[in-house]
Amino acid sequence: MENDVVNLFKDLVNIDSPSFKEGELAKILTSKLEELNFKVELEEHEGTVNIIAKRNGEGEPILLSSHMDTVLSNKGVKIIEEKGQIKTDGNTILGADDKAGIAAILTGIKHAVSKNKDLISLVVVFTYGEEVGLNGAKRVEKDRIGAKYGYVFDSGGDVGIAINKAPSEIDFTAEIIGKEAHSGVNPEDGVDAIKIAGHIISALDLGKIDEETTANIGVIKGGEMTNVICPLVELKGEVRSHDFSKTKKIAQEFKEVFDKNAQKYGGKVEFKKEIAYKDFYLDKEQEVVKYLERNLRELGRKLELKSRGGGSDANVFNEKGIPTLNLAVGMTNGHTTEEFVTVENLVMASKLVEKLVEKESRSG
């Protein structure tokens, strides 16, 4: 199994697939799924595709999912394997997020099939555009999945870790509208959008608000010349909480702060907010958790349930009514050129998939 998953992982990493450019990878994955007797459908959106693949077996199907896109291009990647780790030469990302998950899913199923094991019914979904807003998962219809529960393979850490709690997020964009004037001739005729933005930011409660809630402004754009009173500033930010009611409340309070300060200092504001994803929590008594725990135990691994501060496709599938955990596949330092994955975790994740899909695991 080690050679299979390592070689497949390296092959996948060598296919450049940044967000919205997953097409070449999707063709190869489609072929591999068809070789495993899956019926594959391609769902076209935004110039790219989701892969929805189904294989008949015993009982209600479970969902296995990973995303095809990487946070950045890794064109020209040079893969280095040493001391049990797979990494790059430091000039590009690796792409273990989330090709480690894809490799584990395909290898685990392949080994179960090669042993002539009876399998449970399966739905494999490989999504596009996860890194830019969970776009692919959001566009998959629940009825097209039809799974009882599911597992997304897209978390860092050692195999055995499962994310059973993740926050909601609301993103916002605000345009602060002032009035331009010459800063050296008639500054009193201008309305400084930068000054208004400063008052707004000072009035906002940013950072860690409480144990389950954070807020941040991460983008500021405005001004072109030093001799012009700035007429327009754009701010972009987010609010996150494990309590969706808090997320909504704080986002609304932020809007009120923007409106109040813009009016106070003679400007206007256009404030737009959007739900990025909703929170989820799956307790240890749910079937999706118990099934995972039982199969990990048979592999000599202990289940470790954890909370996470960010969203994943699991948030979306849970919102669609499919209880879904986000499982660790061993990737470390994701979204950086120092990213790596351990061979041990790749193998263990593949073995876990093999166990999850076997009919005898469910009957046991």
Automatic annotation (TrEMBL):
Residues 171-265 form the Peptidase M20 dimerisation domain. It comes from the Bacteria. Keywords: Hydrolase, Metal-binding, Metalloprotease, Protease, Zinc. Binds 2 divalent metal cations per subunit. The keyword Protease applies. GO terms for biological process: proteolysis. Zn(2+) binds at H67. GO terms for molecular function: aminopeptidase activity; metal ion binding; metallopeptidase activity. It holds the Pfam family M20_dimer. Its cofactor is Zn(2+); a divalent metal cation. InterPro entries: ArgE/DapE_CS, Bact_exopeptidase_dim_dom, PepT-like, Peptidase_M20, Peptidase_M20_dimer, Peptidase_M42. SUPFAM superfamilies: Bacterial exopeptidase dimerisation domain (SSF55031), Zn-dependent exopeptidases (SSF53187). Belongs to the peptidase M42 family. NCBIfam families: PepT-like. This is M20/M25/M40 family metallo-hydrolase. It comes from Proteinivorax tanatarense.
